[in-house]
Specification:
It is a single chain. By secondary structure, the chain is an alpha+beta fold. The protein contains one helix and 13 strands. It has one helix spanning 2-35, and strands spanning 49-57, 63-64, 71-72, 74-81, 92-99, 102-106, 109-113, 119-120, 126-127, 131-136, 141-156, 162-172, 180-183. The strands form three sheets. A five-stranded mixed beta barrel has the order 1-6-7-12-11. Strands 5-4-10-9 form a four-stranded antiparallel sheet, with no helix packed on it. The protein has a two-stranded antiparallel sheet with strand order 2-3. It is elongated and about 60 Å long.
Length: 184
Amino acid sequence: MLVALLLPLAAGSVVLGWVWLRDHDSRRTRRVLRRARVTQVANLVDGKLACVVGIVERGDDELTAMVTHKSCVAYDTTVYFFRGQSAGFPERVEVERRLSPFFVADASGRVRVDAAAAALCNAPVARSERYEERIIEVGARIRIVGSVVREPVLDDGAEHSYRELGSTATLVGTAKYPLLIDLE
């Protein structure tokens, strides 16, 4: 009799623990984003880690999110596969993260964002016990942390001598510091 009462309680604890662990990573990353000091685009320094807050502007291409089919510049879709009708731990988890290069603009300028993938920390736009999806849409106000790469903009003058017209900045993710994005 006691076993019959404790078994559902134990199973429920396991499921709650799994849900907590699943969400713990995104909460921790969100805390890092919130504590990062914001830098204006005009003040970005090559090779440094920077946090920029601004509005997402369209890049070359847009993506279509897997679950919601919304147009976006980045999405993160996680699908949980369970054995049969089991609601315990998933047998398999598949994650697809995609990012199409885009721009983030603040009052001082705009920065290009380009990475193979990014950790999206915003709340899911679609969620069930079998999947969750996060997206970043054009026009969204975001907070983004990434490594800065500055490249000179050169002008080919009539005399074929190059002169520097300034530089462009790109936020990228690295193995040590992945690109982190959250809605502001």
